[in-house]
Amino acid sequence: MRSLTDTIRLLCRYVGVAAVVACCNASPAFAADLTPGEIRSELVGHAIVWWEDGGWLQGQLVLAPDGSAEITVDRPQASGDVGRWTIKGGEICTAWGEIRDGIEKCYSVRRDEAGRFVTSGGNVFEIREAGV
Length: 132
What we know:
With 132 residues, this protein is an alpha+beta fold. 22% of the residues lie in helices and 39% in strands. The longest helix is centred in the first third of the chain and has 21 residues, at 4-24.
């Protein structure tokens, strides 16, 4: 029969192995936030299709190299806006002419296991090539 000390040691060993396995098998969704350089190379100048996690709102977004931005909301009701984008403290920040009354909002961005980009605000970005 095992002593209580031996049982605790064995349990700690199993918990340690489980933690290592969980870390090694973590999905890219838990990877680090994109760096400012990665944000620029991955998102800027590309046609982005976006949607809210949950699917209520969706549309298209372009972050131009000159700091200007265009957004469309295709669903639930078609609309659009223009504004500016910048990177502050490793986060992408947008300020629109009408959306959010022009108030700037910043989000961190990570890549998920499907290669899409997920913001800390709950939006999902997918790069679409022209004609696709």
